[in-house]
Each structure stands twice: as structure tokens, then as C-alpha cells.
Design a protein that fits this description.
Elements (H helix, E strand, L loop, with lengths): L1 E5 L4 H11 L8 E6 L9 E5 L5 H7 L5 E4 L7 H21 L5 E7 L26 H20 L3 E6 L1 E3 L3 H5 L17 H10 L2 E5 L7 E2 L1 E3 H11 L8 E4 L6 E2 H12 L3 E5 L10 H7 L7 H10 L15
Parallel strand pairs: 1-2, 1-4, 2-3, 4-5, 5-6, 6-11, 7-10, 8-13
Antiparallel strand pairs: 9-12
Helix pairs in contact: 1-7, 3-4
Amino acid sequence: MKLLVTGMTGKVGLNFLPAFLGEPRFAGWSLRALCNNRIIDHPAVEVVRGSLADAAAVHAALQDVTHVLHMAAVKESPDLAIDVGVKGMFNLLEAFRASPTASQFILIGGDCSVGHIFHHYDAPITEQAPRRAYPGCYALIKVIEEVMLEQYRFQYGINTCCLRAPWIMEKDDFRHVLSFADQFGGPLWSDFFSAAEIKRLARTGTVPLLHDAQGRPLKRNFIHVSDLVRAILAALDNPAATGELFNIAMTEPIDYGQVAAILQRARGLDSVAVPTPYFSNWLDNAKAGQLLGWRPLIDLEQLIERAWSYVRAPDDPRIVWYPG
């Protein structure tokens, strides 16, 4: 078995690699990474250089491959988004369907394909919910990727699986989400506070308590990277994943009111209300539990504790893969 991975040098890829290599079920598999700008340097990984937008490079990377894990993505950069999300996805699927060895194609999707906090839902968002992108090219591309994957399954009968994940957290990410010293994710603090007030809030360690459009504490979906990696391993080479779309999220969305209460109780941090036009939502992960036997292990308390207790080493700089 040979697994081709795109996006190996990203947040999920760098966490996936040691987990995959340490999983006895995949002993004897070989690993190949298609890299363009950033290169993975690991003795267990064969690297193929090339752009996803280059059909010849993609076809070469698919030689003798049995499984594909497509994680490469870009954010709000329209030219690169088209190259990676449209051309790249098309090239991968074309090479996959033409390959005599290919047997499973896994896409890492995102809850931006259902609009997450930008659109209102009356009930938990299941895999049956309509795709409703929020404004911007990134959400549009993620919708296109899901549709392309689905249609290739219908057109050519290939074995596909999509794991739809919300905002992915690792290390101290969640602390920076709740910091006025950073702008990591929305909304823009400057839309609600003066520059002087933002500095004061950052200095005092005050955390934002986001409210939704109804004036209640916002509920938004997250997933810890370790739980997403576990879901990938559960879906990889699993007949139960054939042709399926799975929501891979924490069992309950993060409630900003609960976050503020925990941080006040555990760390003495004050909070300040931030009204937003967003909608609370709930990404239902029951299907992944039923078919894959997967459950997230990191709950809200653990997410907070991990983020606030994480201490960075000098050789561990904070990297913002996406602005959130």
C-alpha cells in the first residue's frame, strides 16, 4: 500500500505523520508527499516536487499509489485558491480515476462549506444539510471540492470519503483565539474597540465573550488536531468510509459563555462582551461515531487547559497556517 499526502507540511500533516507511522495497522505501507513551496524532510517520506496545478506532476505523484489524502489548501488568495482547490482537485481526481492501483481518495473538507457561523440553522448541521458557502473564495472552493469529489464518485464509481472539519486547534491556538493581543480569527477587534482599549484588554488578559445575532453567547464548532488525525486514521482503508461524508467536530460546539466562566474560575481572567452578527451552530458528529467508531477525546476543559499550559520552546515558533 502506498499513501500520497498533499499538505503534509501543514498543521494537520505534521501531526498526521507521526500518528500514521506509529499505527500498527499501517505497518508496511509507504508514504509519499506531493510538495511545492514547503518540503517535508523525513526518512519515511518520499517527496515528489510539483504544483497541484501541474497535471503532469500530479500524474507522476500518483504512480503506484493506492490511497490519497488531500489536505492542501489556501485561504483568501483567489489565484492560488483556484490553482490548489479547483485545478489541483481536478488533476488529483483525474489521475486517481485513471490509476490502476488507486483504491481510496480522502478529502479534508471544512465547515465553511455549510457556512458555519455565517448562516442560521434551526437544528444541528448533519451531513444532509445543503452546502451554503459564506462570502469569500475559500468557502467557495471548499464547496467546489466536496461537489467534485461527490460527482467523481457518481461518474466513475471511485471510492471517496470526505472528512468535514471545523476550526482546527493545536498547541496554544485556542489561547490566541481568545486574546486581544492577536487577531486570529474574526471578528476584527477594531470593529468594536479603540486601539487604546484593545491594548488595555490585551494587557489585562481579558478574553472576548462573543455573542451571536440573538444576543446569546456564541456557539461555534472546533476540533483539536489530534482528534482530526484520529478520524483520518479511522477512515483510511476502512470499508465503512466508502462514499461517505463525515462531520468531524467536538461533540458539542464551544460556548463562549462557558469558556469565559471557566477562565474566570480557573485563571481569574475577566471577559468582555463582543456583539457579533454571527449565528450559533452545532455540527453533528454522530455519523462518524456510528460508522467509524470515532469520538473526539478533547473536550472544552481539556482544550482550554492545553492551550493555557502550553509553553513554547525556542525552536517552536508560533506559525499561523491560516488566519482563522
